[in-house]
Design a protein that fits this description.
single chain, about 140 residues, mainly alpha, 9 helices, about 60% helix
């Protein structure tokens, strides 16, 4: 069966007179992945060791392994730290945030604009934290 895109699902939902039928008909089209699965998929696309990832993400290897094993769920800040450690693109970070049901980066917010800029320009996590601190914004860790 062909996967429906977001616009198709949105239109069908708007046109559907019965929510229960819509949900039943489209069960296989809903995103149902957990954070560890999503992070593992992104990790496999990058050429980095978990030890290097932990260092570049500003977290302990133990905490990192717990996240990848699904025993811990990172906060939005920690997820963004992982994005910097993985050298994720803005698109990869936005997708990860969205699929993890967390707020995507919103450039109208000063803090998010700084983080977005850092991802876009491949800045390191520590440099972004310095820029956030200099702008009187909450750092990522």
């Amino acid at each position: 069966m062909k996967k429906k895109n977001t616009d198709d699902l949105r239109q069908e939902l708007m046109d559907s007179p019965d929510l229960t039928q819509f949900l039943t008909r489209n069960q296989e089209h809903f995103v149902n992945e957990n954070i560890s699965d999503l992070l593992n998929q992104l990790f496999e696309r990058k050429n980095i060791s978990k030890a290097a990832l932990a260092k570049q993400s500003g977290m302990s290897e133990i905490y990192l392994h717990q996240i990848f094993a699904g025993r811990r769920n990172p906060s939005r800040n920690r997820l963004l730290c992982l994005c910097f450690g993985l050298d994720a693109t803005v698109e990869e970070a936005q997708e990860l945030l969205r699929l993890c049901k967390m707020a995507q980066l919103y450039p109208k917010l000063k803090r998010d604009a700084i983080i977005y800029y850092g991802l876009q320009h491949k800045l390191g996590l520590y440099e972004i934290n310095d820029r956030l601190f200099d702008a009187d914004e909450e750092t990522l860790f």
